[in-house]
Amino acid sequence: MLNRHLRITTLLATTLLLTALVAGATSCGGGDDNQTLTVYSGRSEKLVGPIFAEFEAVTGVTLDVRYGSSNDLALAISTEGDKTPADVFLSRSPGPAGYLDDLAMLAPIDTNTLDRVVPTDRSPDGTWVGFAGRARVLVYNIDEVPEADLPGSVFDLTGPDYQNLVAVPGSNSSFQDWFTVFRLRNGDDVAIRWLDDMVANGARFYPKNRAIVEAVGRDEIRFGLVNHYYNHQEVAANGDAQRSANHGFNQGDDGGLMIIATAAVLNQSDEKELANRLLTHLLSDSQQRYLTDTVYEYPLAIGVEAAETLPPAPADTVGAVQIADVAAEFTRTIEIIEASGILDQ
Fold first, then answer.
1. Would you say the pTM of this structure is higher than 0.90?
2. Whole-angstrom distance, CA of residue 48 vs CA of residue 282
């Protein structure tokens, strides 16, 4: 029976043993006074490792970083309670941070750090802050799909033209965040019908966005619902050999929301000042430039422009949305996803 704790999808349930939950990674370094911060990171080492390494080099602080799924890490923190070693929590999406905020486990972030972003890119009570944005898009195979045939709306994907052709990352936290807001904007009846119709139309489940982009590039599947930056990275790595491109839905369509990655400081941390320095580092101009010029995400710090290769960011953002009970809403989202059967496709 689901309760107030954030339920992990059936595909991730075996990760609840905390000793096997995450792969620890500790960068070398160390300050004069051997200061250490423990970071639970739902962003991958490949992505944020260089950011952490520069922070260590500049500050002399050692970061003990534990990587894993954002959902799994949030559940670990809630289970560990005031015994958690985590000082900082990074999430691929606002949902897991909102879940911990709902449990009163996050500390207020320094005002000067919060002021690096606009109010809609941070929590209303200042307990988490966004540091990068990823647009939801439809990736497609450019050899098989003419641009003129691309859909205007995510609702079009349930039609016969897309039967057995669309991949959905149903267990991915970004998709779950998107689907939660999709539910809140359209109501459960509409959201459930859309997902059930996708399953009936032969939508295929892939656990990760990158796996979808790779599958689309080799025409294993024709379309996929993903975060935008994966295809930019694959094109940068493979050049013309990458036979996929992103398609943005019509302006205002629910399929094109932007999801923000978030950072938070834990209430129980004895290193809140140092933890806030790490958050400020994430939002510094240099690290925001890295996130957009190398990773191809949208920078959130005020005054930092997105990389020229990126299209304008979607107007609608899955950030500081007003959700009365975060844990209950995300629990309901996962219930619907599991009941739909998409994870079995």
1. no
2. 9
Determine contact, residues 178/320, Cβ cutoff 8 Å. Answer: no
Amino acid at 280: T
Q: Please write the tens of the pLDDT for every residue from 279-319.
A: 999 999 999 999 999 999 999 999 999 999 999 988 766 65
- pLDDT digit string (tens) for 172-228? 878 988 898 899 889 999 999 999 999 999 999 999 999 999 999 999 999 999 999
Q: Which residue has the tokens 């595909």?
A: 11
Amino acid at residue number 247: H
**Please, which residues bridge with residue 317 across strands?**
258
> What DSSP letter does each residue of 202-223 carry, written as one string?
T-EE-S-HHHHHHHHHTTSSSE
Domains and CATH numbers, the chain: 10-132+259-314 (3.40.190.10), 134-257+336-344 (3.40.190.10)
CA–CA separation, 108 and 96 (whole Å): 16
Other Cβ atoms less than 10 A from the Cβ of 89: the count is 29
Q: Which of 66, 105, 131 is nearest to 278 (CA)?
A: 131
Cross-strand pairs, 134 = 259
Assign residue 341 a region (left: φ > 0; alpha: ψ between -120 and 50; beta: otherwise).
Answer: left
Which of 109, 110, 147, 112 is CA-nearest to residue 266?
109
Separation of alpha carbons 112 and 289, rounded Å: 19
Whether the CB-CB separation of 260 and 94 falls below 8 Å is answered with yes
What is the full DSSP assignment across 277-307?
Answer: HHHHHHTSHHHHHHHHHTS-PEE-STTPPPP
